[in-house]
Write a structure and sequence with these properties.
Blueprint lengths: L6 E4 L6 E8 L8 E4 L12 E9 L4 E15 L6 E16 L4 H15 L2 H9 L5
Antiparallel strand pairs: 1-2, 2-3, 3-4, 4-5, 5-6
């Protein structure tokens, strides 16, 4: 089982790094590990957050992992000067692996799916809010 660690990724400009700090490891099944971009915003509620939880599924025949990501929309009240979260963009992915599947097949599934998610076309579709036509 991997240990929690900080995750460094590229921002939208393709050159700037942002670090998602590992703020809470999973304490077992159904308990998510939590990463936050702690350098964003002036309060913890302003920080983008990624969670990953795992559990047994189908009476132990499969492993189920669920990842969620939330990116807050913050605004500053011009009268009071207070900054607050007004909404959140959110995404989630459910991963289900048959326990009898070979590690090689799992590796290919994970790598290909993750690479599809970060492909230019998929990113452009999601940014636009429309699938490819």
């Amino acid at each position: 089982m991997p240990s929690i660690a900080n995750i460094t990724i590229k921002m939208n400009d393709g050159t700037t790094n942002i670090v998602y700090a590992g703020v809470a490891p999973s304490s077992g099944d159904n308990s998510p590990a939590v990463w936050k971009a702690t350098t964003v915003g002036s309060a913890p509620a302003h920080q983008p957050e990624f969670r990953l939880a795992s559990r047994e599924a189908l009476k132990g025949a499969k492993r189920h992992l669920r990842s969620t990501y939330q990116y807050p929309q913050i605004a500053t009240n011009t009268t009071t000067g207070l900054t607050s979260v007004v909404d959140r963009a959110a995404a989630d992915t459910n991963w289900v692996f048959p326990k009898g599947m070979s590690q090689n097949d799992i590796n290919e599934f994970v790598t290909q799916y993750a690479n599809l998610l970060v492909s230019t076309l998929v990113k452009d579709c999601v940014k636009a809010g429309y699938s490819a036509s």
